[in-house]
């Protein structure tokens, strides 16, 4: 079986339009990944890019961030695109911190804003090698 890299997409409400624009701009490249997303982010991306199959997890405040964190801990993700809203207080701030922390612990590529995500998705190294 051929290796298919996995990428998670997460965006806070104020950043969801950015995520939709990102997905539209990179739809061909994203089609090469198994995509996972928190609930509402996944719905927005699927609606904007119907040809992209996105596995939707729970909404972030209801545990979706933690589900993605668990995937990282289990070695099942090759990258995280997480458009964080730095200007709004979040009821699940601890989950946000836990998710970004695990991406650091396991040293997976993580883009926290559109500019970095454009660079990351443009890199041939993203998802190039099977997970160890
Ligand atoms: O809250 C989120 C990330 O912390 C995102 O969750 P939704 O995609 O369900 O809005």
Task: Tell me what you see in this structure.
With 132 residues, the protein is α/β, with parallel strands linked by helices. It has a single domain (6-121), classed as Methylglyoxal synthase-like domain (Rossmann fold, 3-Layer(aba) Sandwich), CATH 3.40.50. Helices cover 42% and strands 15% of the residues. It has six helices and five strands. It has helices at 16-25, 27-30, 39-48, 64-73, 93-105, 114-121; strands spanning 6-11, 34-37, 54-56, 79-83, 110-111. The protein has a five-stranded parallel beta sheet with strand order 3-2-1-4-5, with helices on both faces. The protein is globular, with a radius of gyration of 13 Å. The protein binds 1,3-dihydroxyacetonephosphate (13P). 1,3-dihydroxyacetonephosphate is lined by residues 10, 12, 38-41, 59-61, 64-65, 92, 96. Residues 1-132 form the MGS-like domain. GO terms for molecular function: methylglyoxal synthase activity. Keywords: Lyase. Belongs to the methylglyoxal synthase family.
How much beta, percentage-wise?
15-25%
Please count the helical segments: 6
Structural class: alpha/beta
**In angstroms, what separates the terminal alpha carbons?**
16 Å
Q: What is the number of domains?
A: 1
> Could you estimate the helical fraction of the residues in percent?
40-55%
Low-confidence stretches: none
Give the overall silhouette. Answer: globular
- Looking across the biggest beta sheet, what order are the strands in? 3-2-1-4-5
Radius of gyration: 13 Å
Known CATH architecture: 3-Layer(aba) Sandwich
Main β-sheet description:
5 strands, parallel
CATH class identity: Alpha Beta
Superfamily at the CATH H level?
Answer: Methylglyoxal synthase-like domain
């Amino acid at each position: 079986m051929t290796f298919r890299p996995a990428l998670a997409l997460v965006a806070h409400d104020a950043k969801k339009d950015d995520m939709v624009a990102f997905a539209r701009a990179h739809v061909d490249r994203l089609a090469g990944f198994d995509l996972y997303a928190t609930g509402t982010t996944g719905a927005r991306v699927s609606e904007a890019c119907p040809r992209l199959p996105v596995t939707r997890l729970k909404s972030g405040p209801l545990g979706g961030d933690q589900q993605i964190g668990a995937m990282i801990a289990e070695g099942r993700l090759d990258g995280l695109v997480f458009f964080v809203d730095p200007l709004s207080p979040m009821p699940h701030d601890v989950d946000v911190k836990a998710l970004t922390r695990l991406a650091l612990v396991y040293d997976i590529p993580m883009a926290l804003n559109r500019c970095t995500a454009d660079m990351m998705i443009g890199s041939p190294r993203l998802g190039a090698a099977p997970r160890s």
